[in-house]
Structures are given as C-alpha cells and as structure tokens.
Amino acid sequence: MTDPGRTAILRAARKAFARESYDAVTLRGVAADAGVSAALIVKHYGSKEALFEKVADFSEAAQLLLAAPNERLGEHAVRTMVQYRRDNGADLLVRVVFAAGKGDERAQIREHFRDQVVRAFVARLTGPDAELRAALVTGQLLGLGAAMAIDKTGPIATADPDAVVELYAPGIQALITP
Question: How far apart are the first and last CA of the chain?
C-alpha cells in the first residue's frame, strides 16, 4: 500500500520541477501544494536534491512496463499505463514531456528517461532497428499517457481498459516482435 503523503509529495514535486527551474523550487512550496509540512518531505526524502532525484527516476516505471514476456509486452505495457493512471491519478512517463525545456535539471530528467526506459526496451528487443523500435514504443506509450492526462473524462480515460488494450496494444506489439 502506498503512503498518501509520499504520493502527494511526489505529485506536487513533479509539477513544481516541470513548471519551475530547480533553483526556483522550494520544499515549502512543494509541501504547500502537497498539503504536508516541509519537515515531512525532509523525513521522507532528506533534501531537495534527493526529492528531485526521485522525480527524475523512471526505474519503477520501466520495471512495471517491462514485467511481461515479449510475446505479451505490448498488451502488458498498455494495460499497465491505463491501470496505473486509474489507480494513482498519475502517469508513469508523461513527466518527461515537461522536461523538454532548457536547463540542466530538465536534461537530467530526459537522460534518466532514455537510460531507464528507452534503453530497457532496447535491451528486450531483438532483430533489426531495436533502438528505433524502442523509441517508437516509448513514444506511443507517452502518447497514450498524454492523452489520458489531457482529457481526464474523455473516451480513453473512461473506456473499459480491455477495449483500450485491444485497440492500442497491437501497434506497440508490432514494434516489439516485427
């Protein structure tokens, strides 16, 4: 079971680091947005730097997305994206989209995404163009995540997860096992 305080802190920190430069983000500001005390952030994460590292870390997302054999990886990844959004009100990957701007911290988020997610898919794929196919797979997953994040009450957000998987996963699976 997840700690609601930690979840609120991470959600607020992701928003703060996406909107502001690293220097402009304060633990007090993150705490206020999360509805917790700055002391609780320090207790859980120790420092702003450690909190940023947690925000920039995609290893859990990669582990969740890749927890299936290649024959079912497309279906599993799509189902994981949809279910995670429904269970947590957040997305596994979309925060990298907000890291498109300038700044060392944004570059670090993009680098972690490439190292921890894209390269994890590359390592799983066999055959020609594994790097390109992995980038396309993660691009499609980002698109799905962005669509669910943007239109929280739209057809993707409200559809039966099985219907989303049935329609979306074959395109991803075709890239996994060409």
Answer: 38
Q: Which of 56, 13, 54, 4 has the alpha carbon at shortest distance from 31?
A: 13
pLDDT, tens digit (0-9, with 9 covering 90-100), for 115-133: 999 999 999 999 999 999 9
- The widest CA-to-CA distance across the chain, in whole angstroms, is 51
Task: Tell me the per-residue pLDDT of 60-70, one tens digit each, with 9 for 90 and over.
Answer: 999 999 999 99
Helix (H), strand (E), coil (C) string for 78-120: HHHHHHHHHHHCCCCCHHHHHHCCCCHHHHHHHHHHHHHHHHH
What amino acid is encoded at 2 in this protein? T
Query: Could you tell me the pTM of the whole model?
Result: 0.86
Question: Which one-letter amino acid corresponds to residue 45?
Answer: Y
